[in-house]
Amino acid sequence: MRMPNIITQLWHSNKGGIPTTLKNIRTMNLEDSIETWNELLNNGWELAEIDPQINNDVA
To answer: For the chain, what are the domain ranges?
Structure first.
């Protein structure tokens, strides 16, 4: 079975945490994306839930 590819986006945000400009986009396989996610969590990153309307406005 083929593993899916994952697309990640890194955004610059303002002081309120609202994404403003896209910094980069990466495509990686599922295994690499899980490894990257775990590294980020271990380095103190947190998942930030963004209001879907903000995502629509930025896009």
So the answer is: 5-58
